[in-house]
Amino acid sequence: MSVHSTAIVGRNVRLAENVEVGAYAIIEGEIEIGRGTKIYPHVHIMGCGEIGENNLIHTGAVIGDVPQDLTFSSVSFSSFKIGSGNTVREMVTIHRSAKEGGITKVGSNNFLMACSHIAYDCIVGDNVVMANASLLAGNVRVFDQVFISGGVVIHQFCRIGRCSMISGNSRITKDVSPFSMVAERNEVYGINAVGMKRNNFSKDAIKELKEIYKIYYKKGANKHNALEKIKSLGFVSNETKEFIDFIENSKRGVC
Length: 255
Known about the structure:
about 260 residues; eleven-stranded mixed beta sheet; UDP N-Acetylglucosamine Acyltransferase, domain 1; Udp N-acetylglucosamine O-acyltransferase, Domain 2; nine-stranded parallel beta sheet; about 15% helix; 4 helices; elongated; alpha/beta
């Protein structure tokens, strides 16, 4: 364990072996940090939370601050939890939950680029990329393997389906279906075939999802009839089931 002489580490902070804390970093509150994690200079970690192993948290990042929610009470107890193997770049902000006993959750092996923001009560999966200045409002759910490009803003309570990709500067106010590509304001313009190949999806699954995309987004049927058509065609992949389940459980509507 290596803590710079100018860093401030509170008495209730628990640092595992091989944790590095850089100059002028502040870690305060009920915080636990796993082995091999590196905290760069001028990072501020606060509140109550857990950070896993082998994370890189770069200069100016703020983790665990109070949520930007006018209903939040200063006496509420809430927390955050971050997995392992994440890269958190400069000036990233991750806020703790706005709910009594709630948790903001970030998984593992994510790449959060400079100035990206994860608000209160978000749930971010694994292997997610958030490019520079991409912003999640409160209660957003981001599934695994999602790519969010620079300058994207996502409205509260939206769900971003697995292995989808959102183009730069898009405005998202509805759910993004799994495996799709979205741009501008809630416009689906294709299927994320490249992302699926990179994530080792089978050729059969990709073929099925291309057909599903045509039926649901391009054939002109209403959403209910399109979904019934997809169900009737006997597609067998788990990805097809995932797509159907996601659509059927959408509360905001789907892009």
